[in-house]
Design a protein that fits this description.
This protein has about 180 residues and is mainly α. The protein has a single domain, classed as Up-down Bundle (Four Helix Bundle (Hemerythrin (Met), subunit A)), CATH 1.20.120. About 75% of the residues lie in helices and about 5% in strands. The chain has nine helices and two strands; from the N terminus they run αββαααααααα. The longest helix is centred in the N-terminal third of the chain and has 25 residues, at about 40-65. This is GntR C-terminal domain-containing protein. Keywords: DNA-binding, Transcription, Transcription regulation.
């Protein structure tokens, strides 16, 4: 696991995988390795981290988010519809996911997620450079918010996982290899 190799995650008995002490330096090493060079392995690693974070905060959001919190997520998502350029779409996509993680209420998780922003945006750029996916991204985000609004943990977890795997098919098309499922 690349996250463990870079010191971002440690495996501990009875605790499983946890964020390592000194994770800021580990994230910097990870960023220097991945920046601009998204391999299938790097994609799976970062998206796996995002899957853990975003499904984890989903539980907190389901338990604690107000209607106003979810309306604010809708508003962040709606910004996507007015955009034309892929780079603007990537930034807005990231901002939606950042707002989602922020609703999780854990400052350490949010800070770690934000340190990965350049790598996450590189990954988000993969599918958006192939074709304009503005309405698809908006619809996918709307499904996520709706599952939170319905307090549907299973749907939310499924939708996060589906979205985390989305760009892998585009990455494999660019490299000419078959995608591996995570």
């Amino acid at each position: 696991m690349v996250l463990r190799a870079f010191g971002l995650v440690e495996t501990r008995p009875k605790s499983g995988a946890i964020v390592a002490d000194g994770h800021a330096e580990a994230v910097r090493r990870l960023l220097s390795f991945h920046r601009g060079l998204v391999s299938a392995e790097g994609f799976r690693d970062v998206q796996g981290f995002r899957r853990i974070v975003e499904t984890g905060v989903g539980e907190h959001i389901i338990m604690h988010a107000s209607d106003a919190d979810l309306a604010a997520l809708d508003a962040v998502n709606d910004r996507i519809l007015g955009l034309r350029e892929p780079d603007d779409l990537v930034r807005a996509d990231y901002e939606f996911h950042d707002a989602l993680v922020e609703l999780g209420g854990n400052r350490t998780v949010l800070a770690t997620y934000r340190m990965l922003r350049p790598v996450i945006e590189d990954i988000m750029r993969i599918g958006k450079s192939v074709r304009t996916v503005k309405t698809d991204v908006h619809a996918t985000h709307a499904e996520l918010v709706d599952s939170l609004r319905q307090r549907d943990r299973i749907a939310y977890t499924y939708l996060v996982s589906r979205q985390m795997n989305y760009g892998l098919r585009h990455l494999s098309q660019q490299s000419g290899s078959e995608p591996e499922r995570t």
